[in-house]
Recover the amino acids of this structure.
């Protein structure tokens, strides 16, 4: 399966409106970022003033301002895009539309508020079906300077170790 189509599949994450999944709890502060397990390359996110650290074993490519990160053996694929939005809630409809394009039968758990490098963010997990197979999903939305939101969504085959994925999500930093 082509990387672009796999990344677009992540975009179909929401079988139910994402607004209904929003958790209204107090913000959660994630633990300090240990960074990816391996050295990697810091890659800027198109259209935003932030970057991610991509582990050495991962591949990345840029197509039409969408950054795709592909894990070893393509068991995990992350898609990163930047959208113009006044805030996180405003970007949920874009995420909803993109996820629905590929993944079917999505069950997204509540989105939780947190801070990423002192920027407001929402994070969530779920599962769905891609080409009839169950996949695990992750979603991260980060409000970055300049009335923009970075949307990151990922799909992984079941039982895939995701230490690198979590480290990538935690490596988002301002330029």
């Amino acid at each position: 399966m082509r990387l672009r189509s796999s990344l677009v599949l992540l975009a179909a994450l929401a079988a139910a409106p994402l607004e209904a999944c929003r958790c209204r709890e107090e913000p959660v502060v994630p633990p300090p970022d240990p960074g990816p397990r391996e050295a990697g390359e810091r890659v800027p996110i198109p259209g935003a003033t932030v970057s991610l650290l991509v582990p050495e074993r991962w591949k990345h490519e840029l197509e039409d301002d969408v950054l795709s990160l592909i894990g070893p053996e393509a068991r995990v694929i992350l898609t990163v895009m930047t959208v113009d939005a006044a805030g996180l809630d405003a970007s949920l409809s874009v995420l909803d539309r993109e996820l629905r394009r590929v993944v079917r039968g999505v069950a997204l758990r509540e989105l939780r508020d947190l801070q990423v490098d002192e920027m407001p963010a929402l994070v969530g997990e779920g599962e769905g079906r891609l080409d009839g197979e169950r996949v695990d999903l992750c979603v991260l939305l980060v409000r970055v300077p300049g009335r923009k939101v970075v949307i990151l969504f990922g799909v992984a085959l079941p039982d895939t170790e995701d230490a690198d994925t979590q480290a990538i999500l935690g490596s988002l930093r301002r330029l």
Residues 76 and 165 are 8 Å apart (CA to CA). The helical segments are 3-10, 88-100, 163-170. Residues 88-100 form the longest helix (13 residues).
